[in-house]
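Notes from hallway chat w/ T.B., transcribed later so I don't forget. T.B. wanted the structure written out for a chain they're using in a teaching module, and asked if we could keep both sequence and C-alpha cells in one place. Agreed to drop them here.
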Amino acid sequence: MREKQQSNQLKKRADQYNDPQHNYLRYWDERRYEHLSEEIAIKKFLKNKLFKLALDVGGGYGRLDILLSKYADSVILAEPSQQQLDLSADFLKNYPQVKRILMQADDLDFDDNSIDLVLLIRVLHHLPDPYNELSEINRVLKTNGYAIIEVANYAHFRNRIKYLLKRQKLPSEPVDIRSEANRIKDEIAFVNHNPHTIIRKFQVAGFDVVDVLSVSNLRSPTIKKYLPVYLM
C-alpha cells in the first residue's frame, strides 16, 4: 500500500508541471532575485571544481543547467514532467552537452557510483518524506562525489521570532504550507523542513553534510518588487 501511495504522489507531482496553464518558465520571470541567489550559491560551492558528469534531478526546464555546464563536461537533466522537457528543448538548444531524460527522482536509471555531481534544487518542498529520493541520489553518486541539495527552510528568521513570542519550539517535522483550498483539493505537497531534522535525514540516507549556506533570505514581496536586483 505504501509503495502505491508513493507512486500516485509522484505522478501527481509531475502532473502539476504538465499543466498547460502552469508555465514554469514564465513563473521565473518575476523571480530574478531568487534565481540569481541560487546561482551565486552554486558558484560558491563549485568554485575551481570541474566534473565529468553532472545530474540535475527535477531541474524543470533546465533553469540551472546552463550554469551547471560550466562545471561539468556533460550534464543530464532528469525531470519527471514531459512539459518541462519540452520547454527545455528550446531553452537549452545551444547546449548540446545537456542531455534531457524523463525520470523520477526516486527511480534514477543510472548505475551505482556513476555520477560525479548531483543538483537537487526546489524539489524537497514537494517531499515530506524524501528518504527514497535521497537514498537513490546517494546510490548513483560516486563515493567522493558532490551533491548540492536545496531545502525550503521553516526555521527562517521570521518564524523563529514568531515561535519565540509564542514560547513554542519550532516544529521538528515538515510543515505543510499549502493554502486551505489546495489542501481540500489535495494538491501536491508543499512543505518547509526543519533544517536539523532534514540534516539527520541526509545522514540516514548516506550523505555527509560538509557545508551549509543560507540562500535567498529576502522574503518581502514589496521590497523585492521595488529594490534593484543588484542591491538585493
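Follow-up for T.B.: Confidence is low (pLDDT under 50) at residues 1-12. Might be a good example for the class.
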